[in-house]
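So, can you check this one?
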Amino acid sequence: MAYIISADDIKNTLPGYDPKHSEILHHKSAHIADRTYAEALKNRSENTVILMSGGAASGKTEYVSAYLHRRKAIIFDGTLPTYEGAKIKIRKAERCKKKIEIHAVLPEDLLIAFVAFLNRDRKFPSEHFYRTHSESRKTLLEIAKNFPSIPIVIIMSFYLRQKNNSKMTFGVLRGIERRVVVEFLEKNQYTEEEIKREQRLYDI
């Protein structure tokens, strides 16, 4: 079974946590997650580390549950918001002789992902959605360029409309030539303002 480190799960255990104001404990839970990650690298036997990437409500946790929870791996379920932070995690894993993979979940439709974000129990300001989707793509592109030996798995998340509800499903792209991955990511970069304007999220 995978050893999953999630700042959101950690947040649930902190005194005073209120899902309606998740941002209040976000930095504290992220710090604990980083510390737990460093300890896991040193103390656990798993040889593989999987760093998740993707903006809020992109479907990362659902993907981990569907595809990765049975893998013998240390999984860091976060957004990878900065290249420097991602590089630190990668270097720490390398020093501990771990194999590293990046699994990036990108919503097929950002508008649908935004609606899901607004309807989650964990509440954040809308800017959190714009920022995490912009920053995670920027970080992923930098990793693709600067760490060519690290496998990157691109996952497209979709919502299938059913009679009474919607079900999330995934299209997993593996083994793509790195040049193609870089070109794909370059074409799918968004600033926070572009996410709001081009995805028509102002109107929600």
User: Anything to note?
Assistant: The chain has one domain: 3-203. The first helix runs from residue 7 to 12. Residues 3-203 form a domain with the Rossmann fold fold (CATH 3.40.50).
